[in-house]
Structures are given as C-alpha cells and as structure tokens.
Amino acid sequence: MAHLEPLPNPVPSSLCPRRGAPALASRGRRGVTPVEIAAVVALVTLVGSLLAWFFGARNAGAAADNAAENARGIASAVVSWRTDHGEGCPSVTQLEHEGYLTRSTAHADAWGQRFRLACHSEAPVVYSAGPDGKAGTHDDIRVVVR
User: Fold this and answer.
1) Rounded CA gap, 23 and 107, in Å?
2) What's the total number of domains in the chain?
3) CB 57 within 8 A of CB 49
4) Is residue 51 part of a domain?
5) Is there a domain that residue 28 lies in?
6) Which residues pair with 144 in a beta bridge?
7) I need a surface site. Which of 71, 76, 81, 100 has the fewest CB within 10 A?
8) Which of 84, 91, 79, 83 is nearest to 118 (CA)?
9) What pLDDT score does 121 carry?
10) Alpha carbon 72 to chain centroid distance?
11) Residue 19: inside a domain
12) Could you read off the pLDDT of 37-54 as tens digits, one per residue?
C-alpha cells in the first residue's frame, strides 16, 4: 500500500476552536467597539449631571443662607448707627465709611450685588435682589432692622 500524507490544514491553528474554549476566545483578542465607548460616555455624562444637579441645589441654598447672614450683619450696623445718630437711614457706603461695617462683613451678596437699605417705613430693611438679580421677586433676601 502506498503511504498517504495528510493534507495541509487550510485554517491556521490560532483560529481553530479548542474543545471547551469560549467562542469569543477562538477569535483571539477583541477590541472595544464604538457602541461600547458611546455607552460608557453616556453613563458617565448622566452620573456627572446628576451629581452637578444635586450639589448645585445644595450650594444655592447655602448661598441664600450666607446672603441672609451678611444682611443681618449690615442690619446690626444700622442699629448701631441709629443709636449714635438717632432716626434716619444710612446707606451701606455711609456705614462703611463711618466704620460701622467691618471688613469681615460682606457688602455684596453671594451673586455679586451690593446690599441695599430701604427706609420707607419706621423699620429700615436690608435687602438683596437674590439670585435672579431682580428686586421685588420671590427670591429676594430681606432683613428688617429692629
């Protein structure tokens, strides 16, 4: 009988699946698809926007609290000024120049606008226009001087 040689294998051994090996492992290493990258970017963006919304809401409340505290400091300076000068209504600038406001008392609110004094009634009011910058809206900070 004639000796028969086996035919050469047309498929490289690296691409042939092994017994018990997962199907993906048979193809070798696989890269990350653009769809997978887009999904990860979308998830990171979603988590980032949720965190920004959560912490932004907390900071907005803290800014309003800080502005109210600074307005109370100015109201305290008005009480001292009225004790020394009797009735009347000083401006924030006047309180500053006459030394009733210290450097530690902020003369501007958390949104960069100077506090104002209104003396339309017997009790002066220290106010800030609030985050929207418009006086007379729901977000105004108002402290009545007593």
Assistant:
1) 70
2) 1
3) no
4) yes
5) no
6) 125
7) 76
8) 91
9) 63
10) 25
11) no
12) 888 998 998 888 888 777
The pLDDT tens digits of the residues spanning 64-120 come to: 888 888 888 888 888 888 889 887 888 888 888 888 887 767 778 888 888 888 876
Question: Among candidates 100, 38, 109, 36, which has minimal Cα distance to 68?
Answer: 109
| Domain extent at residue 136 | 34-144
Interval 100-114: pLDDT, tens: 887 767 778 888 888
97-102 own/partner pairs: CB under 8 Å, 24+ apart: 101/73, 101/74, 101/77
CA angle 94, 136, 106 (to 5 degrees): 35
CATH number for the domain spanning 54: value is 3.30.700.10
What distance in Å separates the CA atoms of residue 20 and residue 41, rounded to the nearest whole number?
35
Return d(Cα 79, Cα 98) in angstroms, integer: 14
